[in-house]
Amino acid sequence: MRIAINISRFKQDFDAMSLIGRTAEGGASRLAFSPQEQIAREFVKQKLYEAGLNPFMDPSGNLHGRRLGVEPGPAVAAGSHSDSVENGGHFDGVVGLLGAIEVMRSINDAGIQTRRSLEVISFLSEEPNRFGISCFGSRALCGKMDRALLYGRSDIKGETLSAALSSIGVSAQEIIGLNPEEYKYNAFVELHVEQGRMLYDSKIPLGLVTEIVGAYRYKVTFKGQADHSGGTPMNSRRDALAAAAEAILAVERTCRKYQDKDIVGTVGVIHVSPGAINVIPGECDIIIEVRGSTHFPKSTPVAEIKEAIQNTARQRKVEVNIETLMEDESRSVSPRVLQALEQGAAELGYPCLRMPSRTGHDALHMAELSEVGMIFLPSREGVGHHPSEWTDMGDIEKGLQLLATTLVNLAGS
Ligand SMILES: [Zn+2]
User: Fold this and answer.
1) Which residues of 360-376 are buried (b: 16+ CB within 10 A; e: fewer)?
2) Sign of the dihedral through C-alpha 70, 186, 144, 100
3) 367 C-alpha to center of ligand 1: Å?
4) Among 37, 44, 223, 291, fewest CB within 10 Å belongs to which?
5) pLDDT value at position 1?
6) Distance 126 CA to ligand 1 centre (A)
7) Is it true that domain 215-327 has CATH number 3.30.70.360?
8) Per residue in 169-224, pLDDT tens?
């Protein structure tokens, strides 16, 4: 069934969203818990309301809008996120979120009554927030947030996660008390831009995700001795930054060794203290991230990296502490949802490519509550998390048509 998508109505919403938190470089800065992201969430709530979807917030801070079906029971859902990284792009998250709302309006316009209910979900804080947690809303909804994390984790200024949550009307206590069983879905489909170049290079408009990679992340803190850079001879230094530098190279070396197994590793965060030109760094922390597919365990390279770090610390006589921030396993999507997507693409006559998602998404965590699938759209030059991120409206329209057809097929009409 082809459901007509009103792409100009979608574009109006998309353009309005792209003005919220717009940066001087033309990008988007809507960090979780920021005033800009709060404005975006109000905008989403308004759009859900206008589409007749009776918006409500769950205890984890995710916004929902439901279109009732004929039968009670678990809904068929779609959605994504409105938050962005610092100076990120306008398509990441927003296409899947505002796209899901447009799909509901288009199904309304077509006068289709579904058997199961349909639902839009706008997840809270998908991007890594200032507490070092990504996909906060979907993790919390499936019961992965505990008291220690909610009350113990604080940002660089000392604000706790629970305080940040309460500033937007979300109670840490309610998150601890929520019952994931109440949030089961029949199916969840996330439409998202690829943020890689597989579709762009192959000139295929639609990607059907087969598996979603999860990341392992660790905070590694080195403690040496801060001393005067002029008065301390080279052979008696305990330089925390030099030790961290060796750790960073160990991550690169180890992950290169396993690159044919789809392993990638990155250090994208470093803090040096005291950070003065004439003082030997006394403390340094870095955040290591390792990603990989379902075909090879990430624990293998991670064990080697940890061993290399311990050796470096011993040789350089610095203390080291390795804190696990998260260890998300990679997951395959649901064969039933993937088949529904393939069937939908065939009905519409659109070519599509089966491909893995090398980036993490809320769908990875929603897999605990639902059978999940994902649609990818081409990112120009493969760019993601950057103001120049771009996906053609024509491709978005195809993606929304596929999403609409698949949701109706899954919900039954
Ligand atoms: Zn995203």
Assistant:
1) bbbbbbbbbbbbbbbbb
2) negative
3) 16
4) 223
5) 79
6) 7
7) yes
8) 999 999 999 999 999 999 999 999 999 999 999 999 999 999 999 999 999 999 99
Q: CATH 3.40.630.10 region(s) of the chain?
A: 7-213+330-411
Nearest to 207 by CA among 227, 185, 184, 190: 190
Rg (CA), the chain: 23
CA 93 to ligand 1 center in whole angstroms = 4
Specify whether the CB–CB gap between 101 and 119 falls below 8 A.
Answer: no
HEC profile for 276-320? CCCECCCEEEEEEEEEECCCCCCHHHHHHHHHHHHHHHHHHCCEE
DSSP assigned state of 81? E
State the virtual CA torsion across 215, 149, 97, 56 in degrees, nearest 10: 160
> In this structure, are residues 403 and 375 in contact, taking their beta carbons and an 8 Å threshold?
yes
- Ligand 1 centre to CA of 47 (Å) is 20
Answer positive or negative: Cα dihedral of 107, 113, 118, 120. Answer: positive
By CB atoms closer than 10 A (0-12, 13-18, 19+), residue 276 is exposed
**pLDDT tens digit sequence for 139-182:** 999 999 999 999 999 998 999 999 999 999 999 999 999 999 99
Peptide bond into 274 cis (omega under 30): yes
**Model-wide pTM > 0.85:** yes
Mean pLDDT, residues 231-253: 97
Q: Determine the distance separating the centroid of ligand 1 and the alpha carbon of 51, expressed in angstroms.
A: 23
> φ and ψ at 109, to 5 degrees?
-60, -35
Question: Strand 214-223 vs strand 187-193: parallel, antiparallel, or unpaired?
Answer: unpaired
In CATH, which superfamily holds the domain spanning 7-213+330-411? Zn peptidases (3.40.630.10)
CA torsion sign for 355, 65, 47, 37 is: negative
Measured CA to CA, the distance from residue 113 to residue 70 in angstroms comes to: 7
- The rounded distance, in Å, linking the Cα atoms of 101 and 172 is 28
Provide the pairing of β-strand 76-81 with 187-193: parallel
Compute the distance from residue 203 Cα to the ligand 1 centre, in Å. Answer: 22
Contacts of 183 (CB under 8 A, 6+ apart): 58, 141, 142, 369
